[in-house]
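Fold it.
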Amino acid sequence: MGDLTTLLLLLVLLAIAGTWLVLSRARDRAIQEARWRCKQHGLQLLDETVGLSGVRLRRLNDRRVLERRYSFEVSIDGDDREAGHLWMIGNALTALILPTIELYMPEHATPETTTTEGGNVVPFQRQHRDRDIRH
C-alpha cells in the first residue's frame, strides 16, 4: 500500500509541475503579445510583465475552452499608469483593452512639421474622462 501512495503522490506532483510549466509558457506568450501591442500603439509597457487576473470558460466552435485574462500597466507619456488587459485562448489573442488615447497635433504645427529633425515621435495626450465625483 505504501508504494501505491508514493506513486500517486509522485503523479500529483508531476501534474502540478506540468501545469506550472504550461501556465509559465502561456504567460511568456502573453508578455510578448502585450509588448508588441504596446509598441504598435505607442505605449510603454510598465514593469515589462503581465499577471494572470482571471480564467473563464468560453464556448468556441461548440466546445468549451479556457480563456485567460492577463492584466498589465502601460504609460502614455511616462508620467502615468493606466490599466490594460488582454484575453488569450492558447497562444491566440482573443481580446485587447488599452487605455483610450487620442492623437493630437499642436495648433502651430502643420503636417509637414510634425516630425522634428531628431526623430519621428508623435505626441500623445491622455483622453479626458468625465468622472462622477461625489462629495
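The chain has one domain: 2-110.
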